[in-house]
UniProtKB/TrEMBL annotation:
NCBIfam families: PRK07667.1 (NF005807). InterPro entries: P-loop_NTPase. GO terms for molecular function: kinase activity. It comes from the Bacteria. The keyword Disulfide bond does not apply. The keyword Kinase applies. This is Kinase.
Length: 193
């Protein structure tokens, strides 16, 4: 992978670099992130992955508001300001970062501290990663492109039953992101999954 050479070159001039793995729901971001981390490890490059979906907010903050469903998903899924401050602004210059980890069964967030390597690659993966508030922090960004039909087939069969939720919440938010941000264009590399 040519990007490993690019990352190695970047690390010659920086103690840490921040790599983004962007893509729409079920495009393969987590799988690709794990493979990338393993490839880096094989090259003796230290790294850590942050999954943005681990840091979403409680349901009461992202459902049943005055906003449309897609707006809730895009604008309220994360506390964008807190993620900016506690992750993106600190990850390159701190020994560790502390973030509110979301526990789905309890619908609660509890702080977790992640130790960072002294030198290495920080991978952040998640949807809407190249939004205006976060894009400038990324040293290099992949966008995983995958057709909606294929991504939908990757959903759990029980989840697929609520097609209206996909139409009103997820897909409209994704369309908004693609239209207003154009993540495939902004990314340093587009991968088709």
């Amino acid at each position: 992978m040519v990007e490993i050479n690019i990352m190695s070159e970047m690390l010659k001039h920086n103690s840490r670099i921040l790599i983004g793995i962007d893509g729409l729901s079920r495009s393969g971001k987590t799988t690709f992130s794990k493979r990338l981390l393993q490839t880096l490890s094989d090259q003796q490059v230290m790294g850590v992955i942050f999954h943005l979906d681990d840091y979403i907010v409680e349901r009461s903050r992202r459902y049943g508001t005055e906003l449309q469903q897609w707006e809730e998903y895009y604008h309220l899924q994360w506390d964008v300001e807190q993620v900016t401050t506690d992750l993106f602004e600190r990850v390159l210059n701190s020994d560790s970062v502390t973030l509110p980890l979301y526990h789905s069964k309890k619908d609660q967030c509890g702080n977790v501290t992640v130790k960072l390597p002294d030198k290495g690659v920080i991978i952040v993966e998640g949807g809407f990663l190249q939004r205006e508030e976060w894009r400038s922090y990324l040293d290099y960004c992949f966008f995983l492109e995958c057709p909606r039909e294929q991504r939908f087939k990757r959903e759990d069969p029980l989840t697929q039953r609520d097609l209206n939720k996909f139409k009103q919440r997820y897909w409209k938010a994704e369309e908004y992101y693609e239209t207003t941000v154009n993540p495939a264009f902004l990314a340093d590399r587009v991968l088709y999954t």
